[in-house]
Amino acid sequence: MTARIIDGKALAQQVRARIADDVAHLRAEHDVTPGLCAVLVGEDPASKVYVGMKHKATEAAGMLSRQIVLPDDTSQEDLERTVTDLNADEEIDGILVQLPLPDHLDARRVQELITPAKDVDALNPYTAGRLAIGDPTFLSCTPYGVLEILEHAGVEVAGSNVVIVGRSNLVGRPLSVMLTLKGRDATVTLAHSRTRDLGAVCRGADVIVAAAGQIGLITADMVSPGTTVIDVGTNRGEDGKLVGDVDFDGVVEVAEAITPVPGGVGPMTVTMLLQNTLEAARARRGLPRR
Ligand code: NDP
After folding, report:
1. How close is the Cα of 52 to the center of ligand 1, in Å?
2. Is 229:246 a contact under the CB 8 Å cutoff?
3. Which domains does the chain show, CATH number per domain?
4. What is the pLDDT of residue 1?
5. What is residue 23's predicted lDDT score, i.e. its pLDDT?
6. Which residues of the chain carry a pLDDT beneath 50?
7. Residues with a known catalytic role
């Protein structure tokens, strides 16, 4: 049997249309336009592309999009001042510092400076800590996108065995916490490069989330029939094309459902950034969710 392909692009369009509608109401009813500011340091081509995509998506949702581009040799002090100014900027609800930063800059310190009320990328340790104690504020965008995909695809995670491959602070670790919160109730195994017999671990899964950054890591023999496979991996193949961590052609023959790369998790990551910015704009003004 061939797996159902989960169309992340179509889901992203659907969710973005709903966000744009919410933004229009916020403006009409409360005269509030949510604002997102991205801070980019240096000339990293991939970072420029990501910031450009986020800018377009933010404007398309009817939000204010601002970009601050700082030179490669920006000092830690200047970058921190930029963030501090944005913390106090009334027009801005969400602050995003695009990673990676040039080597001489301390990303952790910068993330810690972003005020939690505007931490829409959810990388401030305070935000991570709130999630860890089961009282989350913002959810980091990629894991949040994975949750939305699972829900949209009708995958029941409560009581299920979910294997997440990759334990980074950006994807795997926060996703493991989100899935085990009361109300979601998954049983999660967080696998990593020291996991013994990854194949056996994956074969026991109802859901596999691959977030290791290794081309072709998850192969058909590691997947049991009935499993949903979510591929977070975004890697460049030898031909320069985007490929995930899952051997798509093999796994699609075994799994129940699968996300493609591109067109799976990627479009949902930017979408959840918009959702967080909308939530930040409401929360800062004490407005309830719609
Ligand atoms: P990191 O490099 O920070 O983390 C990778 C994780 O995978 C580590 O925990 C590592 O284990 C684990 N790992 C590496 N190799 C193996 C292996 N052979 N077996 C089991 N586990 C392994 O990566 P990120 O979390 O930042 O990103 C992961 C992937 O997701 C990348 O391809 C990235 O491009 C993509 N990504 C996609 C996004 C999207 O929007 N679609 C957003 C963010 C990331 P250990 O801890 O032991 O080293």
Report:
1. 23
2. yes
3. 31-116 (3.40.50.10860), 141-266 (3.40.50.720)
4. 72
5. 98
6. none
7. 54, 98, 121
